[in-house]
Amino acid sequence: MAKFKRILLKLSGESLQGAQGYGIDIDRLNDYADQIKEARALGVEIGIVIGGGNIFRGLTGAGKGFDRVKGDQMGMCATVINSLALSSALEAKGVKSKVLTAIRMEPIGEFYSKWKAIEALQQGYVVIMSGGTGNPYFTTDTGSSLRGIEIEADVMLKGTRVDGVYTADPEKDPTATKFSEITYDEIYNRGLKVMDLTATTMCKQNNLPIYVFNMDIYGNLLRVLNGEDIGTLVKN
User: Fold this and answer.
1) Could you give the angle at the alpha carbon of 14 between the alpha carbons of 205 and 59, nearest 5°?
2) Which of these, 151, 143, 163, lies nearest to 82 by C-alpha position?
3) Can you tell me whether residue 181 is helix, strand or coil?
4) What is the dihedral of CA 166, 218, 91, 98, to 10 degrees?
5) N or C: lower Cβ tally within 10 Å for the chain?
6) Under 8 Å CB-to-CB from 155, ≥6 apart: which residues?
7) Residue 150: which residues within 8 A CB-CB, separation 6 or more?
8) Which residues contact 133 (CB under 8 A, 6 or more apart)?
9) CA separation (Å) from 19 to 29, 41, 150?
10) pTM to 2 decimal places
């Protein structure tokens, strides 16, 4: 029996680069699809939001002279590309999936609504919600918080390349120690960057817990769903 009935899985676009360092690494894509298939086999209802940093990041583009709004719109399109790739990989493995977009772009994907997403989840689809919030100046972290709250997920599982939340960046500080559990207030007080402040505040106010874990190690998604303590739980 899985620990959660309905999850919002937040995936990093940058992690999709895999070993090649750009774009979409097919091995990493299939790795993710296999893990999601295993999770779906447990009966877990799965909503997914995936970033677009492997293709284009609006804020970075703005720093290089792009108009911020157009840059963010390009980033939204990047999340749609990643979502289509993941949907294709899932379908190839026999997993029903549906891509919803925050901006109208039929026939690429259906226009997102809470009720459409929940209905698809209940019908057994993996629902991939792309295009962020549909608005500039919001990150995909904020998009995933919003979607997680809207679909009434039990938890947001934030799959990253780090195995949890640390006292400092473990890639820069070898003395950093990992939290097994931490509150939103501690996140604020310590200035830790789990997600951007808007996303963190939304989760806090709507009592949506976040579980941060390393998605790039095969089998970790199943371990989280089986209740193994391999990451960090962030909650009120």
Assistant:
1) 65
2) 143
3) strand
4) -20
5) N
6) 4, 7, 8, 208, 209, 210, 211
7) 114, 117
8) 102, 142, 143, 146
9) 12, 28, 34
10) 0.94
